[in-house]
Design goal:
Pfam families: RNase_HII (PF01351)
Helix content: 40-55%
Mean pLDDT: 89
Subcellular location: Cytoplasm
Distance between the termini: 67 Å
EC number: 3.1.26.4
Largest sheet: 5 strands, mixed
Number of strands: 7
Function: Endonuclease that specifically degrades the RNA of RNA-DNA hybrids.
Strand order of the largest sheet: 3-2-1-4-5
Radius of gyration: 20 Å
Enzyme class: hydrolase
Number of helices: 9
Amino acid sequence: MSVLYRPRPSVVRRDSGLYGYERALARRGFSPIAGVDEAGRGACAGPLVIAAVVLGPVIEGLADSKLLTPARREVLHDEIVARARAVSVVVIPSDEIDRRGLHKCNIAGMRRAVAGLGCDLGYVLIDGFPVPGLPAPSLAVWKGDQVSACVAAASIVAKVSRDRMMTSLDERYPQYGFAEHKGYVTAAHRQALASHGPTPHHRFSFVTVNSVMRSGAGIEIGDNGVGAGVA
């Protein structure tokens, strides 16, 4: 019979810094440690992007990606990719989210991101909620991107990777303002949906997009079921 070993209970002090979880786990022999986080869960357009990171040398200035300026995120992203022991990014497109459901895609994407690291792991720290079926013991950490260095690194990689994709989409669909709101629901995004209808990159299962489709405001429905703006 196989036995799953977990760390002995311990307390990570609030003042232990962003590397507190990693140090506590490493002292008990659980290393390397991967952090996992996603970006785009609440958006109504664009992909869900999940990143997993195993850090190497200490990277100064890590923090929850939402607390950093875009310019600082870009700098840290490139430093993480260059210096981390392993980085894995999984991109789940909007049509797959519609077909399978957001939470199922998130769980499956986190498993894929961890598997994509390509190294044996001692422990996995996940932002927010537990993920069964990982190849190592794991812990879901509430606001993990604010209290764990490897989760913060994963949040930065996921956020910057997705932002770059949405900026690229903005070049193809400039009337939607994707470079500004990154696919999240804003007044300007709602207005663009009402005026032009959804793009193939919108999530048709989300209420904001679905309500526009049902109302038909400013939209002609083509044979493929995708809305097109009325000229």
